[in-house]
Structure formats: structure tokens, C-alpha cells
Design a protein that fits this description.
386 residues; 2 domains; seven-stranded mixed beta sheet; 13 helices; 39% helix; 20% strand; globular
Length: 386
């Protein structure tokens, strides 16, 4: 996922990187019975898309609390940085995180726009990062050696969702919609390419993130009368868009990606309008009704069932915890250790490629059934309802 549109923050990033160079890699501070390492968590914790960032933050906190409960020689403090998903806020916050707070590593950023905005600073200051949720494909093409993520990117997610729809519905026409956020456009690009490659006729429209309404897009979709509609974007826009499409008489199946995998997609559209909507995600949300160890621990701690990217937040933190357990307490040594990790996580097997991408790129499909988002299973095996 990405945050709001990436602005021109490169000059600020370069200036702050120079100021931070003297404190690269962070370090540990003394505590009463040993030392404490600061690891940051950055993402939208109070903004319009916080519903898909709080679960991975909670997952990371759970992993760290479990580790600290073993009374290790080096404890870990999780330091939150609320970027609200905005690249400019992320750039300001990382200056504080590295310069004043002296973090040694970072879980996140949660979104792709903010990841792009601060990746250079993390690299220059030798701060390893593991994102539980940023999915833009371009992040792996920056030659960053300190950057990692535990989720598949949109070049995997977009085609998986599109191919699932092609198999399930055999569409001849599709309408692809996005707003102008980096994540949204990237996912929409992947949808469009896959449809065209498979012989599906595609029309497309894009609206500003803060558009007051989507009536222009609705009219274009209605005139096109497509077999399926895909939206690359977040639930904050996806819910109202879906409502307006249904209010406008558009009945085609609506599908979207991980940025909309939240109950607020249903509440934003209304249960009737949201019924049948398909949502793909490179995430694994445990079935709350199953005997799942992670789900049980998560619910006991936070009094709520795990949601999107909760398991991935836990796994991102565990990768860093394993590095610390092995005696690594600087950014450089932790980063070197991350190149060797290979463990069974709560979400999947966790292992990184040389460019920081995960070795496993599974995509699950979810659908709104009876007003509730249900996991249909892997995109290659799932069966659509209705």
C-alpha cells in the first residue's frame, strides 16, 4: 500500500540525511538490568486509513512484548511514528527517529508513498527496515540494501486478482478505476495490463484522492456497462465510490485490493451496496473461529480478532527480534542478519530475496458475504460466491 501522493520531498530528504549521518545505525541505551534497543514503527495510526495500519502495529507490539517477557539481555522498545500515511510527515518523523530517538531499525513504513519518501534516508543512515504492508513494485528497484518487506507486491497482487475474476466470471469488458495516490495507480496499472494481456477490453478513469464525489467516474462506468469493475485504492475512497456506483444503477461485480480490506469498506458503501465485493490481499488473516495460536494470543492481548496485516506485523518484528537474539545490536549487523533469515512466521515462511522482496508471494481472496468480509482462500483455488 502507499500513502497519499508522493510530493517533492527529495531535497528535504537529502538535507536531513546529511544532518543524520553522524548517528547512523542507531544503538542501544543502558537500562537497569541490561540495554534497550529502539525499533520504530511508522504508518498511519490516526488518519483515514489507520484501520489497515493499527493491526500490523499491534502484531509487532505482540511479538516484542513476548520477547521482552523472556528477560533478554537486550530488550526492545517499539517507538511509534504516526505519519498518517503522508510522505511529507514521514520525512519529518524519520529525522526525529534517527537523529533524536536513535532508532536502530524500523518496522514499516506501512504505505508505499512514505516508503519511497524516506527510503534514501534509511539507506544512508544504515537503518534496516521491514515493511509489513507496502506493496508498490517500484520499491524493490531502488537498489536499497537496507529495505525489506514481508508481503508480495502489486505486480503479484494485481494479476492474481484480475486472473481470479477472469476465471470466475469470463468477462469481455472491464473498467479500471483509481485515485491519484501512488499505491492506487500502481495497482490499477497491474489490473489493466493483466486484463489486456488476456484479451479483456479495458476502459479506465482516475479521480483526485480528495475529490468531493465520484459522479463523473460513475457516469463513465455506467455508459461503458462493463462486466467487471476493479478499483486500485483504499477503503476511505472505495466505500463511497462503491455506494455511488450502486446508487447510480451500476451492478457489475466490484473488486479491489488490500488497501480496501477493512470493514470500513462495507460501512462506507453500506452493506447492501458492498455485498459480493471481492478483495484481494497478499496477507493472511487467521480465521477467528479456528484454533489458531496467533489469533488466540492477539485477541487475548487486544480484545479484538486479528485483521489485515496483523500477522505480517508480527513477522516483520520477529525477523528483527531474531537478529537481536543472535547478538546483533547495530543497524549494519541486524541488516546482515536479515539476509539470512528463514523461519515459519504467523503469515507464511519468512525469507528475503537479495533485493528485499519476500520469497513467498501468495495472494488470498476475500469477499463481502452477508455484510461480513470472508476469506475465500488462495487466489488460485478460491471460488466466488454469487
Amino acid at each position: 500500500m502507499s500513502g497519499v501522493r508522493f510530493g517533492r520531498v527529495l531535497a528535504l530528504a537529502a538535507a536531513t540525511s546529511l544532518a543524520l549521518a553522524g548517528c547512523a545505525g542507531g544503538g542501544s541505551s543502558s537500562s537497569g538490568d541490561g540495554s534497550t534497543l529502539k525499533i520504530g514503527f511508522m504508518g498511519d495510526l490516526t488518519g483515514e486509513n489507520s484501520g489497515i495500519v493499527i493491526p500490523p502495529r499491534n502484531g509487532a507490539q505482540l511479538a516484542i512484548d513476548e520477547y521482552n517477557a523472556t528477560n533478554p539481555k537486550t530488550k526492545i522498545e517499539l517507538k511509534p511514528y504516526d505519519s498518517q500515511g503522508k510522505p511529507d510527515q514521514a520525512t519529518s518523523l524519520i529525522t526525529t527517529a534517527i537523529g533524536s530517538d536513535k532508532i536502530t531499525a524500523l518496522i514499516g513504513p506501512a504505505f508505499s508513498g512514505e516508503s519511497k519518501a524516506i527510503g534514501g534516508q534509511l539507506e544512508q543512515n544504515k537503518i534496516p527496515s521491514v515493511s509489513p504492508s507496502a506493496t508498490n513494485p517500484g520499491l524493490a528497484k531502488n537498489n536499497w540494501s537496507y529495505w525489506h518487506r514481508v508481503v508480495a507486491n502489486d505486480d503479484d497482487q494485481g494479476p492474481a486478482i484480475a486472473n481470479f475474476l477472469i476465471t470466475a466470471k469470463s468477462p469481455k469488458t472491464a473498467f479500471v478505476i483509481s485515485d491519484d495516490q501512488e499505491y492506487s495507480v500502481g495497482l490499477a496499472d497491474a489490473f489493466e495490463k493483466t486484463f489486456k494481456d488476456k484479451g479483456v477490453t479495458v476502459q479506465r478513469d482516475k479521480f483526485p484522492k480528495d475529490a468531493p464525489d465520484y459522479s463523473s467516474t460513475v457516469q463513465k462506468v455506467k455508459a461503458a456497462n462493463p462486466d467487471i469493475i476493479t478499483f486500485g485504492g483504499y477503503y476511505a475512497q472505495g466505500g463511497p465510490l462503491l455506494k455511488q456506483l450502486r446508487d447510480g444503477g451500476v451492478k457489475a461485480i466490484f473488486a479491489t485490493g488490500d488497501g480496501s480490506l477493512d470493514p470500513q469498506l462495507v460501512s462506507g458503501a453500506g452493506a447492501a451496496a458492498a455485498e459480493g465485493a471481492v478483495i484481494g490481499c497478499p496477507c493472511n488473516i487467521p480465521d477467528a473461529g479456528a484454533a489458531n495460536e496467533f489469533a488466540t494470543k492477539y485477541k487475548a492481548k487486544f480484545n479484538v480478532a486479528p485483521a489485515i496485516y496483523a500477522t505480517e506485523g508480527y513477522d516483520a518484528a520477529t525477523a528483527l527480534i531474531n537478529a537481536v537474539k543472535a547478538g546483533n545490536t547495530t543497524g549494519e549487523t541486524i541488516n546482515t542478519f536479515l539476509k539470512t533469515v528463514d523461519f515459519k512466521g504467523a503469515s507464511k515462511q519468512i525469507k528475503f530475496k537479495a533485493n528485499g522482496e519476500p520469497e513467498t508471494a501468495a495472494i488470498n481472496v476475500y469477499q463481502v458475504v452477508g455484510g461480513v468480509i470472508k476469506n475465500l482462500g488462495a487466489s488460485t483455488e478460491a471460488k466466488i460466491t454469487g
